[in-house]
Prior knowledge:
Layout: H1 2-14, H2 22-46, H3 56-80, H4 85-96, H5 100-112, H6 117-143, H7 146-161, H8 164-177, H9 184-194, H10 197-208, H11 218-243, H12 248-258, H13 265-273, H14 277-302
Helix pairs in contact: 1-10, 2-8, 2-9, 2-10, 3-4, 3-11, 3-12, 4-6, 4-11, 4-13, 4-14, 5-6, 5-10, 5-12, 6-7, 11-12, 11-14, 13-14
Amino acid sequence: xxxxxxxxxxxxxxxxxxxxxxxxxxxxxxxxxxxxxxxxxxxxxxxxxxxxxxxxxxxxxxxxxxxxxxxxxxxxxxxxxxxxxxxxxxxxxxxxxxxxxxxxxxxxxxxxxxxxxxxxxxxxxxxxxxxxxxxxxxxxxxxxxxxxxxxxxxxxxxxxxxxxxxxxxxxxxxxxxxxxxxxxxxxxxxxxxxxxxxxxxxxxxxxxxxxxxxxxxxxxxxxxxxxxxxxxxxxxxxxxxxxxxxxxxxxxxxxxxxxxxxxxxxxxxxxxxxxxxxxxxxxxxxxxxxxxxxxxxxxxxxxxx
Length: 305
């Protein structure tokens, strides 16, 4: 865990120098999201052995847990802090949406190795689509906006079509299903780029934290952090161990992904709907800082893959 969070701290510290400013941080994040991670996903999925059946118990364990903390965040925000419905919805969204790509992928692969690729990427494939749809439907229904709901299918399709992470996953799966083998030069090229994804992603996550501050919204941010870092992984642990028959490694992957800190998208939706910006921005920073301890505890508890 020291190298992982050490890289994040290194990225955060680099933003205080003249040579790595905000523009450099954005450029590195773009390289990771649009190039390094998609190539890594393509290579890993092209060489992975796909399951004969979709592991519904595994997916339900994670996403039922996400649904519970989403609802708990909304109910808690309404009971404790009040405010407009959109802010309550953003609080629920932030309680369920983790930093799965830039932090989750390098963290899980570093902790559990190549065998964790398939369960990890199955979660990543559904994560944004399901949760983006959920937050949009919740807010638009709460507003009574039929126009917003009519635009939802097109927005989902457009988001999927322009998401390079999903393109890497889909092309890798198609390559594997076709029974193809990566040619040597292509495999080495993909390895060269993909091997840089994890360290660059962790460095980028650390650098991105410089943009967020605790902005007078500590109480709702703390609630979001608690639901995301503690309640969600505990729910997934209970579902994978007591309700569904999930293989041990797959269960560990789901629990670690559930324990990730709040991702950036709740803040982007908060800006879009002009509600909950301070809460979501504060939750990103607070949960990321606390995750240094909480995720380390989870990994020590679960043990090696």
